[in-house]
Write a structure and sequence with these properties.
The complex is a heterodimer of chains A (234) and B (152). Chain A is of the alpha/beta class and 234 residues long. Chain A is 38% helix and 19% strand. In chain A, strands 3-2-1-4-5-6-7 form a seven-stranded parallel sheet, sandwiched between helices. In chain A, helix 1 packs across helix 7. The model of chain A has no long low-confidence stretch (mean pLDDT 97). Chain B is 44% helix and 17% strand. Chain B has five helices and six strands, in the order βαββαβααβαβ. Classes of the chains: A alpha/beta (234), B alpha/beta (152). The interface between A and B is large, with 45 and 40 residues.
Chain lengths: 234, 152
Amino acid sequence: MRTAIITGAARGIGKEIAHRLATDFDHLVVVDLSPTLADAALELEATGVRVTPVEANLTTDAGVAAVVDAVETVAALVNNAGITRDARLVNMDEADFRAVLDVNLGAPYRLAMALDGTWADEATIVNIASRAYLGNFGQFNYSMSKGGVVGLSRALAISLAPRVRVNAVAPGLTATDMVETIPDDVIARMVAAIPLGRMGEPSEIADVVAWLCSSQSSYVTGQVVVAGGGRSLT
Amino acid sequence: MRAHLVIPADLRAAFEAAGVDEGELGDPTVIACPSGHHDWPSLLASLTVVFEKSRAAAIAESSVVYVVSSDALLGRTGPLDAMAANGVVSAARTLAAELRKAGVSVNCLGVGVDTPPATVVEWAMRLLDAGVDGPTGELVQLGGAQIGKALS
Protein backbone atom coordinates (compact mmCIF):
# COMPACT_ATOMS: atom_id res chain seq x y z
CA MET A 1 0.00 0.00 0.00
CA ARG A 2 1.36 3.40 -1.01
CA THR A 3 0.68 6.00 1.66
CA ALA A 4 0.91 9.76 1.25
CA ILE A 5 0.68 12.31 4.06
CA ILE A 6 -0.64 15.78 3.28
CA THR A 7 -0.65 18.48 5.94
CA GLY A 8 -3.03 21.41 5.80
CA ALA A 9 -5.30 19.20 3.73
CA ALA A 10 -8.71 20.48 4.80
CA ARG A 11 -8.83 23.41 2.41
CA GLY A 12 -7.13 25.42 -0.27
CA ILE A 13 -4.01 24.10 -1.97
CA GLY A 14 -3.63 21.22 0.49
CA LYS A 15 -7.14 19.94 -0.19
CA GLU A 16 -6.51 20.10 -3.92
CA ILE A 17 -3.21 18.25 -3.51
CA ALA A 18 -4.98 15.50 -1.59
CA HIS A 19 -7.56 15.09 -4.35
CA ARG A 20 -4.85 15.02 -6.99
CA LEU A 21 -2.81 12.40 -5.11
CA ALA A 22 -5.92 10.26 -4.56
CA THR A 23 -5.42 8.93 -8.07
CA ASP A 24 -1.76 8.00 -7.49
CA PHE A 25 -1.76 6.61 -3.93
CA ASP A 26 -3.75 3.95 -2.07
CA HIS A 27 -3.92 5.62 1.31
CA LEU A 28 -3.97 9.30 2.23
CA VAL A 29 -3.27 10.58 5.71
CA VAL A 30 -4.77 14.05 5.75
CA VAL A 31 -3.71 16.32 8.59
CA ASP A 32 -5.23 19.59 9.69
CA LEU A 33 -6.53 21.54 12.67
CA SER A 34 -9.54 22.87 10.80
CA PRO A 35 -13.03 21.74 11.78
CA THR A 36 -13.61 21.10 8.06
CA LEU A 37 -11.15 18.19 8.10
CA ALA A 38 -13.84 15.54 8.61
CA ASP A 39 -15.86 16.81 5.66
CA ALA A 40 -12.74 17.01 3.51
CA ALA A 41 -11.92 13.40 4.42
CA LEU A 42 -15.41 12.26 3.45
CA GLU A 43 -15.11 13.99 0.08
CA LEU A 44 -11.83 12.21 -0.52
CA GLU A 45 -13.20 8.81 0.48
CA ALA A 46 -15.90 9.24 -2.10
CA THR A 47 -13.18 9.02 -4.76
CA GLY A 48 -12.40 5.48 -3.59
CA VAL A 49 -9.10 6.08 -1.82
CA ARG A 50 -8.54 5.01 1.78
CA VAL A 51 -8.36 8.10 4.00
CA THR A 52 -7.12 8.57 7.55
CA PRO A 53 -7.88 12.03 8.92
CA VAL A 54 -5.60 13.21 11.73
CA GLU A 55 -6.53 16.33 13.65
CA ALA A 56 -3.18 17.48 14.92
CA ASN A 57 -1.17 20.55 15.84
CA LEU A 58 2.22 19.81 14.30
CA THR A 59 4.00 22.36 16.48
CA THR A 60 3.57 19.93 19.38
CA ASP A 61 5.20 16.56 20.07
CA ALA A 62 1.77 15.02 20.52
CA GLY A 63 0.60 16.29 17.15
CA VAL A 64 3.64 14.92 15.34
CA ALA A 65 3.28 11.59 17.18
CA ALA A 66 -0.35 11.33 16.09
CA VAL A 67 0.72 11.48 12.44
CA VAL A 68 3.55 9.00 12.90
CA ASP A 69 1.15 6.61 14.65
CA ALA A 70 -1.16 6.72 11.61
CA VAL A 71 1.41 5.33 9.17
CA GLU A 72 3.67 2.33 8.70
CA THR A 73 5.54 3.06 5.49
CA VAL A 74 5.43 6.46 3.82
CA ALA A 75 5.70 6.87 0.06
CA ALA A 76 5.10 10.62 0.02
CA LEU A 77 4.99 13.50 2.46
CA VAL A 78 3.62 16.88 1.42
CA ASN A 79 4.30 19.57 4.00
CA ASN A 80 1.70 22.15 3.07
CA ALA A 81 0.23 23.60 6.28
CA GLY A 82 1.03 27.26 6.75
CA ILE A 83 -0.13 30.57 8.17
CA THR A 84 0.53 34.26 7.59
CA ARG A 85 0.81 37.17 10.03
CA ASP A 86 1.80 40.01 7.71
CA ALA A 87 3.17 43.40 8.73
CA ARG A 88 6.12 45.58 7.88
CA LEU A 89 9.01 44.53 10.06
CA VAL A 90 8.91 47.78 12.01
CA ASN A 91 5.36 46.90 13.09
CA MET A 92 5.74 43.13 13.50
CA ASP A 93 5.57 41.72 16.99
CA GLU A 94 7.58 38.81 18.28
CA ALA A 95 4.59 36.55 18.84
CA ASP A 96 3.60 36.80 15.18
CA PHE A 97 7.17 36.17 14.10
CA ARG A 98 7.48 33.04 16.22
CA ALA A 99 4.04 31.69 15.32
CA VAL A 100 4.73 31.83 11.59
CA LEU A 101 8.18 30.28 11.97
CA ASP A 102 6.88 27.52 14.23
CA VAL A 103 4.01 26.47 11.96
CA ASN A 104 5.60 27.00 8.55
CA LEU A 105 9.13 25.82 9.26
CA GLY A 106 9.38 24.07 12.61
CA ALA A 107 6.49 21.72 11.93
CA PRO A 108 7.78 20.43 8.56
CA TYR A 109 11.20 19.86 10.10
CA ARG A 110 9.84 18.03 13.12
CA LEU A 111 7.53 15.85 11.04
CA ALA A 112 10.23 14.93 8.52
CA MET A 113 12.59 14.00 11.35
CA ALA A 114 9.93 11.99 13.16
CA LEU A 115 9.17 9.98 10.02
CA ASP A 116 12.78 8.82 9.72
CA GLY A 117 12.67 5.04 9.40
CA THR A 118 9.26 4.97 7.73
CA TRP A 119 10.32 5.97 4.22
CA ALA A 120 9.45 3.57 1.42
CA ASP A 121 11.95 2.98 -1.35
CA GLU A 122 11.79 5.88 -3.82
CA ALA A 123 9.73 7.94 -1.40
CA THR A 124 9.33 11.65 -2.01
CA ILE A 125 8.97 14.71 0.16
CA VAL A 126 7.49 17.89 -1.28
CA ASN A 127 7.64 20.99 0.88
CA ILE A 128 5.33 23.82 -0.05
CA ALA A 129 7.32 27.04 0.07
CA SER A 130 6.15 30.28 -1.54
CA ARG A 131 7.36 32.78 -4.10
CA ALA A 132 7.81 34.96 -1.00
CA TYR A 133 11.06 33.11 -0.36
CA LEU A 134 12.47 35.46 -3.00
CA GLY A 135 11.41 38.36 -0.77
CA ASN A 136 8.04 40.04 -0.33
CA PHE A 137 7.18 43.37 1.26
CA GLY A 138 5.46 42.99 4.63
CA GLN A 139 6.37 39.35 5.11
CA PHE A 140 9.67 39.20 7.01
CA ASN A 141 8.41 36.26 9.06
CA TYR A 142 6.73 34.43 6.18
CA SER A 143 9.70 34.96 3.84
CA MET A 144 12.08 33.62 6.45
CA SER A 145 9.88 30.59 7.06
CA LYS A 146 9.57 29.78 3.37
CA GLY A 147 13.26 30.36 2.69
CA GLY A 148 13.84 28.00 5.58
CA VAL A 149 11.62 25.44 3.90
CA VAL A 150 13.78 25.70 0.79
CA GLY A 151 16.86 25.13 2.93
CA LEU A 152 15.23 22.18 4.66
CA SER A 153 14.49 20.68 1.25
CA ARG A 154 18.09 21.08 0.09
CA ALA A 155 19.53 19.55 3.24
CA LEU A 156 17.13 16.59 3.29
CA ALA A 157 17.73 16.01 -0.41
CA ILE A 158 21.38 15.42 0.45
CA SER A 159 20.93 13.47 3.68
CA LEU A 160 18.09 11.20 2.49
CA ALA A 161 19.53 10.44 -0.96
CA PRO A 162 19.44 8.11 -2.78
CA ARG A 163 16.39 6.53 -1.16
CA VAL A 164 14.20 9.62 -0.83
CA ARG A 165 13.86 12.60 -3.17
CA VAL A 166 13.07 15.99 -1.62
CA ASN A 167 11.91 19.09 -3.48
CA ALA A 168 10.01 22.31 -2.85
CA VAL A 169 7.22 24.04 -4.71
CA ALA A 170 6.95 27.81 -4.43
CA PRO A 171 3.46 28.93 -5.44
CA GLY A 172 2.81 32.50 -6.41
CA LEU A 173 -0.54 34.22 -6.00
CA THR A 174 -3.07 31.39 -5.92
CA ALA A 175 -6.86 31.57 -5.73
CA THR A 176 -7.50 30.32 -2.21
CA ASP A 177 -9.36 31.74 0.76
CA MET A 178 -5.99 33.07 1.96
CA VAL A 179 -6.19 35.77 -0.72
CA GLU A 180 -9.87 36.56 -0.17
CA THR A 181 -8.89 38.94 2.62
CA ILE A 182 -6.81 41.04 0.20
CA PRO A 183 -8.64 44.14 -1.17
CA ASP A 184 -9.72 43.89 -4.82
CA ASP A 185 -7.58 46.82 -5.95
CA VAL A 186 -4.51 45.22 -4.40
CA ILE A 187 -5.30 41.90 -6.09
CA ALA A 188 -5.67 43.72 -9.40
CA ARG A 189 -2.21 45.27 -9.03
CA MET A 190 -0.72 41.93 -8.07
CA VAL A 191 -2.28 40.18 -11.05
CA ALA A 192 -1.09 42.93 -13.38
CA ALA A 193 2.49 42.04 -12.42
CA ILE A 194 2.04 38.39 -13.36
CA PRO A 195 3.13 37.66 -16.96
CA LEU A 196 0.44 35.00 -17.36
CA GLY A 197 -2.11 37.63 -16.34
CA ARG A 198 -4.02 35.73 -13.68
CA MET A 199 -3.85 34.04 -10.33
CA GLY A 200 -2.92 30.39 -10.23
CA GLU A 201 -5.50 27.75 -9.44
CA PRO A 202 -4.89 25.30 -6.57
CA SER A 203 -5.15 22.46 -9.09
CA GLU A 204 -2.16 23.89 -10.97
CA ILE A 205 -0.06 23.73 -7.82
CA ALA A 206 -1.35 20.23 -7.11
CA ASP A 207 -0.26 19.09 -10.57
CA VAL A 208 3.31 20.21 -9.87
CA VAL A 209 3.27 18.42 -6.52
CA ALA A 210 1.90 15.26 -8.12
CA TRP A 211 4.67 15.37 -10.72
CA LEU A 212 7.32 15.69 -8.03
CA CYS A 213 5.72 12.77 -6.17
CA SER A 214 5.78 10.62 -9.29
CA SER A 215 8.45 8.60 -11.07
CA GLN A 216 8.28 11.13 -13.91
CA SER A 217 10.54 13.35 -11.80
CA SER A 218 12.82 10.49 -10.73
CA TYR A 219 16.04 12.43 -11.41
CA VAL A 220 14.94 15.64 -9.67
CA THR A 221 15.90 16.31 -6.06
CA GLY A 222 16.85 19.32 -3.95
CA GLN A 223 15.14 21.75 -6.29
CA VAL A 224 12.58 24.54 -6.04
CA VAL A 225 9.84 24.80 -8.64
CA VAL A 226 8.39 28.31 -8.67
CA ALA A 227 4.79 28.04 -9.87
CA GLY A 228 3.89 31.69 -10.07
CA GLY A 229 2.89 32.54 -13.60
CA GLY A 230 6.28 34.14 -14.22
CA ARG A 231 5.91 36.68 -11.39
CA SER A 232 9.45 35.95 -10.23
CA LEU A 233 10.68 37.65 -13.42
CA THR A 234 8.81 40.95 -13.20
CA MET B 1 34.16 53.21 11.30
CA ARG B 2 31.45 51.96 13.61
CA ALA B 3 29.11 49.02 13.29
CA HIS B 4 26.63 47.30 15.57
CA LEU B 5 27.96 43.72 15.65
CA VAL B 6 25.69 40.77 16.33
CA ILE B 7 28.34 38.17 15.62
CA PRO B 8 30.47 35.50 17.34
CA ALA B 9 33.60 36.46 19.26
CA ASP B 10 36.08 35.26 16.63
CA LEU B 11 34.54 37.37 13.92
CA ARG B 12 34.18 40.30 16.30
CA ALA B 13 37.94 40.18 16.88
CA ALA B 14 38.49 40.49 13.13
CA PHE B 15 36.29 43.59 12.99
CA GLU B 16 38.20 45.11 15.89
CA ALA B 17 41.51 44.30 14.22
CA ALA B 18 40.29 46.11 11.12
CA GLY B 19 39.58 49.22 13.16
CA VAL B 20 35.81 48.86 13.30
CA ASP B 21 34.47 50.19 16.59
CA GLU B 22 31.57 48.48 18.31
CA GLY B 23 28.53 50.59 17.62
CA GLU B 24 25.01 50.53 18.97
CA LEU B 25 21.48 50.28 17.67
CA GLY B 26 21.10 52.74 14.86
CA ASP B 27 24.57 52.15 13.49
CA PRO B 28 25.11 49.96 10.40
CA THR B 29 24.55 46.41 11.59
CA VAL B 30 26.25 43.09 10.94
CA ILE B 31 24.27 40.02 11.97
CA ALA B 32 25.67 36.50 11.82
CA CYS B 33 23.23 33.80 10.81
CA PRO B 34 22.66 31.23 13.58
CA SER B 35 24.38 27.88 13.07
CA GLY B 36 25.27 24.73 14.95
CA HIS B 37 21.88 24.16 16.51
CA HIS B 38 20.69 20.66 17.37
CA ASP B 39 16.96 21.17 17.81
CA TRP B 40 14.18 23.40 16.55
CA PRO B 41 13.40 25.26 19.82
CA SER B 42 16.98 26.48 20.17
CA LEU B 43 17.11 27.51 16.51
CA LEU B 44 13.82 29.36 16.84
CA ALA B 45 15.24 31.22 19.84
CA SER B 46 18.27 32.27 17.81
CA LEU B 47 16.16 33.30 14.82
CA THR B 48 14.08 35.39 17.22
CA VAL B 49 17.25 37.28 18.12
CA VAL B 50 17.84 37.87 14.39
CA PHE B 51 14.26 39.16 14.18
CA GLU B 52 14.74 41.53 17.12
CA LYS B 53 18.03 42.94 15.83
CA SER B 54 16.66 43.26 12.30
CA ARG B 55 13.58 45.10 13.53
CA ALA B 56 15.77 47.48 15.53
CA ALA B 57 17.81 48.18 12.41
CA ALA B 58 14.63 48.71 10.38
CA ILE B 59 13.28 51.17 12.91
CA ALA B 60 16.59 53.04 12.90
CA GLU B 61 16.80 52.77 9.10
CA SER B 62 20.35 51.50 9.33
CA SER B 63 21.97 49.30 6.69
CA VAL B 64 22.35 45.61 7.45
CA VAL B 65 24.63 42.80 6.33
CA TYR B 66 23.82 39.22 7.27
CA VAL B 67 26.74 36.79 7.24
CA VAL B 68 25.72 33.28 6.20
CA SER B 69 27.54 30.06 5.47
CA SER B 70 27.71 29.13 1.78
CA ASP B 71 27.78 25.44 2.72
CA ALA B 72 24.67 25.87 4.86
CA LEU B 73 22.84 27.55 1.98
CA LEU B 74 23.37 24.41 -0.10
CA GLY B 75 22.23 22.13 2.71
CA ARG B 76 25.65 20.58 3.22
CA THR B 77 25.78 21.09 6.99
CA GLY B 78 22.43 19.64 7.94
CA PRO B 79 18.81 20.75 7.94
CA LEU B 80 18.84 23.20 10.83
CA ASP B 81 21.80 25.15 9.44
CA ALA B 82 20.19 25.13 5.99
CA MET B 83 16.87 26.35 7.37
CA ALA B 84 18.57 29.21 9.16
CA ALA B 85 20.81 30.28 6.27
CA ASN B 86 18.16 30.19 3.57
CA GLY B 87 15.58 31.69 5.90
CA VAL B 88 17.82 34.62 6.74
CA VAL B 89 18.58 35.29 3.06
CA SER B 90 14.86 35.32 2.25
CA ALA B 91 14.08 37.61 5.17
CA ALA B 92 16.90 39.92 4.10
CA ARG B 93 15.34 40.25 0.65
CA THR B 94 12.06 41.24 2.27
CA LEU B 95 13.72 43.78 4.55
CA ALA B 96 15.58 45.18 1.55
CA ALA B 97 12.23 45.72 -0.17
CA GLU B 98 10.84 47.46 2.90
CA LEU B 99 13.83 49.79 3.33
CA ARG B 100 14.48 50.49 -0.34
CA LYS B 101 12.51 53.74 -0.47
CA ALA B 102 14.51 55.00 2.49
CA GLY B 103 17.72 54.37 0.55
CA VAL B 104 18.89 51.79 3.06
CA SER B 105 20.70 48.68 1.84
CA VAL B 106 20.23 45.15 3.18
CA ASN B 107 22.46 42.40 1.84
CA CYS B 108 23.83 38.97 2.64
CA LEU B 109 27.43 37.81 2.57
CA GLY B 110 28.01 34.14 1.85
CA VAL B 111 31.27 32.86 3.31
CA GLY B 112 33.11 29.56 3.16
CA VAL B 113 34.93 27.79 5.97
CA ASP B 114 38.22 28.93 4.45
CA THR B 115 37.27 32.57 3.96
CA PRO B 116 39.76 34.71 5.89
CA PRO B 117 37.98 36.74 8.60
CA ALA B 118 39.65 39.90 7.31
CA THR B 119 38.00 39.31 3.93
CA VAL B 120 34.62 38.92 5.61
CA VAL B 121 35.16 42.24 7.40
CA GLU B 122 36.27 43.98 4.21
CA TRP B 123 33.21 42.89 2.24
CA ALA B 124 30.77 43.40 5.10
CA MET B 125 31.91 46.98 5.50
CA ARG B 126 31.78 47.48 1.74
CA LEU B 127 28.17 46.28 1.64
CA LEU B 128 27.19 48.33 4.68
CA ASP B 129 28.37 51.36 2.73
CA ALA B 130 26.58 50.33 -0.48
CA GLY B 131 24.62 53.57 -0.71
CA VAL B 132 21.36 54.36 -2.46
CA ASP B 133 22.49 53.12 -5.87
CA GLY B 134 24.48 50.14 -4.66
CA PRO B 135 23.37 46.54 -4.22
CA THR B 136 20.46 45.73 -1.96
CA GLY B 137 18.61 42.47 -1.42
CA GLU B 138 21.62 40.61 -2.80
CA LEU B 139 23.55 37.56 -1.75
CA VAL B 140 27.25 38.12 -2.39
CA GLN B 141 29.26 34.94 -2.08
CA LEU B 142 32.99 35.01 -1.45
CA GLY B 143 35.55 32.61 -2.83
CA GLY B 144 33.76 31.11 -5.83
CA ALA B 145 32.86 27.75 -4.27
CA GLN B 146 29.22 28.33 -5.24
CA ILE B 147 29.96 28.38 -8.98
CA GLY B 148 27.96 25.65 -10.68
CA LYS B 149 25.70 25.17 -7.67
CA ALA B 150 21.96 25.74 -7.62
CA LEU B 151 20.92 28.73 -5.57
CA SER B 152 18.21 31.31 -5.98
